[in-house]
Design a protein that fits this description.
Blueprint: H1 3-31, H2 39-71, H3 75-107, H4 116-141
Helix pairs in contact: 1-2, 1-4, 2-3, 3-4
Transmembrane segments: 57-75, 81-99
Protein name: Transmembrane protein
Organism: Streptomyces cylindrosporus
C-alpha cells in the first residue's frame, strides 16, 4: 500500500473508531443517567445523535473505500475494511429500521420491553469496534 493511501486509511479508521466509541459506548448509555432525562427524551436525543453518527460513518466508509482501493492493500487490509463496511451496512439497512419503528411506538406512548434489535445493534457495534481496531493496527504495522 502506498504511504499516502495508508496514511489516509489509518486516519479515517481511527477517526471512525473514536467516534463509535465516544457515541455508542459513552454518550448513549450515559444520557439515560442524566437527571430529568426520561425514556422518550433519551430516545429522541439518541435518534438525532445516531442519525448524525451514521451519516458521518457513511462518509468515512466511502473515504476508507477510496483510500484502500487506491492504495493496493494486502488482502488482510481489504478483508478487514470490507468487514467494517459490511457491519455498517447491516446496522443501517437491517437493524436501524427496526429500532426506528420501535422508538416511534415508544414515543407514541407505548410501553415496550427492550428489543432484540437493540441487542443486535450493540453486538454489531462491538464487532465493528474490534474490526476497526484490527484494521488500524494492520495499517500501522504494514
Amino acid at each position: 500500500m502506498n504511504t499516502t493511501s495508508a496514511g489516509v486509511a489509518t486516519a479515517v479508521t481511527f477517526l471512525w473508531l473514536g467516534m463509535v466509541l465516544a457515541i455508542s459506548f459513552l454518550e448513549a448509555p450515559l444520557k439515560f443517567r442524566a437527571p430529568g432525562v426520561t425514556v422518550p427524551i433519551g430516545l429522541g436525543i439518541g435518534r438525532v445523535v445516531f442519525r448524525a453518527l451514521n451519516r458521518v460513518e457513511a462518509v468515512l466508509a466511502l473515504a476508507l473505500i477510496v483510500a484502500v482501493a487506491v492504495g493496493g492493500p494486502p488482502l488482510s487490509v481489504s478483508l478487514t475494511a470490507a468487514t467494517a463496511l459490511l457491519l455498517l451496512a447491516v446496522q443501517l439497512l437491517l437493524i436501524r429500521p427496526a429500532l426506528n419503528r420501535r422508538s416511534d411506538r415508544v414515543l407514541a406512548g407505548e410501553s415496550l420491553p427492550r428489543s432484540r434489535a437493540h441487542h443486535y445493534y450493540v453486538a454489531t457495534e462491538t464487532a465493528k469496534v474490534l474490526d476497526l481496531l484490527a484494521l488500524g493496527l494492520l495499517l500501522i504495522l504494514r
